[in-house]
Design brief:
heterodimer, A: about 375 residues, alpha/beta, Peroxisomal Thiolase, Chain A, domain 1, 9-stranded mixed sheet, two-stranded antiparallel sheet, 13 helices, 12 strands, globular, B: about 90 residues, mainly beta, 5-stranded mixed barrel, 5 strands, about 0% helix
Chain lengths: ~375, ~90
């Protein structure tokens, strides 16, 4: 049994001081229900996640005490993807026909401060100032630039594109384009990445209504089908975030593994993808993830970015809603934001940021600590 | 148990320009914080080890340069005892 997305809802990302994370999640859930033309009591199950804004299943207090099974999912940056995959399995198994996937969050300002003990690391690693995701991505792109000839102009081009796309997205946090030079010359945070090359922890909520594919048209005139969803964790030898040491031998990371498996599951290749949302917590991450997900060779990104290949009108539009760079990263909601954007694009309702040519295949990718990646492929 | 070499080459690096939140615990304040280098040093025949770098000037750091490990007081404990940490410094 295939699974379809028949309802989508979003609470704008950014900072909403007057609303809790939970309330933003409930807002998104109501929007998704409305979009599918169903009610909360119709939901046979729900999966949801929030990292810093309480338990996702507290949504029942906002939406109604219907007795449904609501499972909390906590899987870092892959929380949204993991929730969706759980829902897909629920429907594929025949245990339910329709349900909800929701994610929301609300983080304090400033970079995340991860707890070493929570990841099985010594306290010294955090005490000495090495437990910073920003450092990992800076060091990974530093090495990548050295090996593949990527320039700092390419880094700035990714951010420039993100803010242009954000300016076309009424739900984005950052809706003002920033000049290339200003991005390059802004405060250096973790060399080679400047302030405008990083996303920030933020707030927001996203919800989806999913159902059996053969019921989809009851709820939605333009359903989008889930062709694959894959989650992978790191293998020995890959270079990952929060690693006090690493092996000299090199092996592909979880992004490469998840991507290959997702394409195999869907029976298509990277050349078939019309729109892609790739984890861009920093501009360098988007560049590396383009190649790791199979969309280009290592080093080819320099030329692609110079040509505008990943802009909305380019041959492979990437992060059409502004990505994490323009939306910030509310951990529980971020992966579902990517899926929301692909549904919007595949339905053809993205307005001024619509990818031309009636896109048929959308790809999402997240990456997070301690070396995990989730990929989905959607088709209409 | 195998002893790692003291010297290796810088595999990648960055400079931490803002003071991390807790659990960062160096005894510094926002006012006294000094940016520090961080990198992975490839120890031949062993592993790549992540560590702070004694150098924080990006102009003086480059991939492939020779580095050696040093053990130095990192901060003082509540009772005044030195807490020793490791870092890597460029080989002169």
């Amino acid at each position: 049994m295939d699974v379809a997305i028949v309802g989508i809802g979003m609470h704008p990302f950014g900072r909403t001081p007057e609303r809790s994370g939970l309330e933003q999640g409930a807002y998104a859930a109501r929007e998704a229900l409305k979009d599918a033309g169903v009610e909360w009591k119709d939901m046979e199950f729900a999966y949801g996640g929030s990292h810093s804004a309480g338990s996702a299943d507290a949504l029942v207090n906002e939406l109604g005490l219907t007795g449904l099974p609501f499972t909390n999912v906590a899987n870092g940056c892959a929380t949204g993807g993991s929730s969706l995959m759980s829902a897909v399995q629920m429907i594929k198994s025949g245990a339910a026909d329709i349900g909800m996937v929701a994610g929301f969050d609300k983080h304090a300002r400033g970079a995340f401060n991860a707890d070493p003990k929570g990841l099985g690391l010594g306290m010294w690693y955090g005490e000495m100032g090495m437990m910073m995701t920003t450092q990992f991505f800076a060091m990974k792109i530093q090495k990548y630039m050295h090996d593949y000839g990527i320039t700092s102009t390419a880094l700035a081009r990714v951010s420039e594109k993100a803010f242009i796309n954000g300016s076309l997205n009424p739900n984005a946090w950052r809706q003002t384009p920033i000049e290339l030079e200003e991005i390059q010359n802004s405060l250096m945070v973790n060399d080679p990445l400047t302030k405008f090359m990083f996303c920030s922890p933020s707030e927001g909520g996203v919800a989806l209504v999913v159902c059996r594919a053969d019921h989809a048209e009851r709820y939605c005139s333009r359903p989008v089908y889930i062709s694959s969803g894959v989650l992978r964790s790191r293998r020995y030898g890959s270079f990952e975030v929060f690693a006090p040491s690493q092996a000299l031998e090199h092996i592909d990371g979880p992004t490469v593994d998840a991507s290959k498996a997702a394409f195999e599951q869907a029976g298509i290749g990277p050349e078939d993808v019309d729109v892609a949302q790739l984890q861009d917590t920093e501009s360098g991450a988007e560049i590396m993830h383009m190649a790791e997900n199979g969309f280009c060779e290592h080093g080819e990104q320099e030329q692609m970015l110079a040509e505008g290949a990943t802009r909305i009108n380019g041959r492979l539009p990437v992060n059409t809603d502004g990505g994490c760079l323009a939306n910030g990263e509310p951990i529980g909601a971020s992966g579902l934001r990517q899926i929301h954007e692909n549904v919007v694009q595949l339905r053809g309702i993205a307005g001024s940021r619509q990818v031309p040519g009636e896109p048929k295949v959308g790809y999402t990718h997240v990456y997070g600590a301690p070396g995990i990646s989730a990929v989905t492929i959607l088709q209409r | 148990m195998e002893k790692l070499p003291n010297q290796g080459t810088l595999w990648t690096w960055t400079v931490q320009r803002f003071m991390p939140k807790s659990p960062y615990n160096s005894g510094e304040t926002q006012e006294s914080f000094t940016p520090y280098g961080v990198g992975y040093v490839e120890l031949p025949g062993g592993v790549r080890v992540e560590g702070r770098l004694t150098e924080n000037d990006p102009k003086k750091l480059s991939i492939g340069m020779e580095m050696e490990v040093v053990f130095e007081p990192y901060r003082k404990d509540e009772d005044g005892t030195d807490v020793i940490g490791f870092s890597f410094r460029p080989v002169e």
